[in-house]
Model the fold of this input.
Amino acid sequence: MIITEETQLRLICEEVKTVKEGEEIGAQLLKELSESQTGIGLAANQIGINKRVCVVNVKEPLILINPRIVEKSEEQFMFAEGCLSFPGEHIRTGRHVSVIVETDNHEGKLSFSAEGEDINNAFECACVQHEIDHLDGITMFDRAMVAQPYRAPEKIGRNEKVTITDGTQTKVIKYKKALPLLESGWNMSEIQINT
Ligand SMILES: [Zn+2]
Done:
């Protein structure tokens, strides 16, 4: 049973004490995820267990026990997300282009990056961030990109984030980093991230 009450989803999850406990929760999550048929990730509080365990199943099933994002790129990308706890709803979010994650059940660090030809890179990278957010009571709506009124380029600060697109992909980067891309044919979107 997947929880849809927002008050429940806002609770901050507690660390599991042992990897074994985490693996048991992870197995339940993967089972629930496969039954959902449409989901690619699930966090324990979405099934009523307020523990820091989540699963992602894009390239392969991954159980993340007590996951921590230890590094993240400043650069973001735009992604259209859904959530099993908000059936039928979709929202454009801003996610870090790359994140490095530590867990209690994987040796070393796990690295996720949206870059590359394979669209699954972006799905997996956004999904990991979405699921770890759940464990902190954060939903995709908190990561929404917000449309802002158009401003003339000369009024945009060099360190201010802007959204640019080349028609197929979208990046959220500092204006000074966007300038060379804008000269090579990228356009600035009217959608800018709220930071
Ligand atoms: Zn979700």
